[in-house]
Amino acid sequence: MRVVVLRLGHRPERDKRITTHVGLVARAFGSQEMILAGRDERLVEGLEDVALRWGGDFQVRSVSSWKAEARSWKEAGGRIVHLTMYGTPLSESMEEIRRSDPLMVVVGAEKVPPEIYEMADWNVGVGNQPHSEVAALAVFLDRLFLGRELEMDFGGRIEVVPSPRYKTVIERRKEDEAEG
After folding, report:
1. Which CATH number covers residue 9?
2. Does 109 appear as a known binding residue?
3. Closest CA to 117 of 22, 8, 1
């Protein structure tokens, strides 16, 4: 299933950390791309660097118009899921959402434009209490992929080896990647 995350409302001076975390969760939990509505080249470069070192096919790009991106997505046959506190409960929507491919998952910031509620195929409430958009995205993607995303092999230069007590990290050299 192709999943991209559209991040709305990014304010570079205020939101760089939380938007970075949206991108990290999008990548680690199975999305193939994050689209950033707005410009923040340092943030894009940072997420691209994570993908380069830790592996996977994750892409990041900035767009000037979220609306044009969402329209284009729908015209190409994609479906849109908007994560919000005010939507249909996640448990009531997930089976139908899982049957849709490709998916654009919209994650807002402080104030989401009303048009996104109209453009979305689903406005999904990941809980109905105030919480982080990072948490909402993680819960949504985990439910979407039924936890299988946590077992993905990213094939990166850096890999954490699970251990109950110790921190074990494998760092491969570039030459190792070329050989195997």
Report:
1. 3.40.1280.10
2. yes
3. 8
What is the model's pTM?
0.91
Residue 170 counted as domain residue: no
Q: Is 129 annotated as a binding residue?
A: yes
- Asked whether residue 106 is assigned to any structural domain, the reply reads yes
Q: For residue 126, say whether it is annotated as part of any ligand binding site.
A: yes
| 133 annotated ligand binder | yes
Q: Structural domain of residue 70, as residue ranges?
A: 3-153
pLDDT tens-digit readout, 41-85: 899 999 999 999 999 999 999 999 999 999 999 999 999 999 998
Kindly state whether residue 37 falls inside one of the protein's structural domains: yes
Cα–chain-centroid distance for residue 5?
Answer: 4
Q: Is 155 flagged in the annotation as binding? A: no
Q: Is residue 60 part of a domain?
A: yes
* 83 annotated as belonging to a binding site for a ligand: yes
Q: How far apart are the first and last CA of the chain?
A: 27
| Helix H or strand E segment including 95 | helix 90-98
For the cut 90, the answer to whether the pLDDT of residue 26 exceeds it is yes
How far is residue 94's CA from residue 122's CA, in Å, rounded to a whole number? 10
108 labeled binding residue: yes
Total count of domains within the chain: 1
Q: Annotated binding residue at 111?
A: yes
Q: According to the annotation, is 110 in a ligand binding site?
A: yes
